[in-house]
Specification:
mainly alpha, 177 residues, 2 domains
Length: 177
Amino acid sequence: MNEVNVKDSRGGAFDHTLAFLLLRLWLGFRAIVTGIEKFGGFNTVQKPFIDPSTGMADPSGAMIEVKEKFYALTNYSAIPQSMKDRFAGEPLMPAVATTPFYAVLGWALIILGVMLVVGLGTRISLFLQGLLYIGLTVGLILIKQDDGVAWLAIHVALIALAFTLARHNRFSILKKW
């Protein structure tokens, strides 16, 4: 009993709380930003060429094309078209399964990420994110994208680690879930 008190007085239990908080924030913000990126698109605009030596617009009126990133609901694309085409040719990935998955992927990432960051149903959010990453992993295995599989495996391992620290979840709205 005395050993536990000494350990806690050195920050041992609170260290676990902070470790879980860091994992929770990383996984949450990773999901949010990834979900938001599903709504990203590019516009090509023409801008005046700026002379690097003077910092002024070129007097001849020369223009250059610049790609500008922007976000809009109409830009939504769960995965790049090239990957959709590869999945379409995979018999283990029927459209009846992929179509709803594509429709909810971005939204699910954002919602689950927000839940995790604010601590609303942390365990549920972790579990659902794990299932989402497993679903993505299956797709990448089928199209032989081994690098992506490895990245997703790291995410699943981080989620599993977060589950081992979940009992130290002090900063949340619904601690039980």
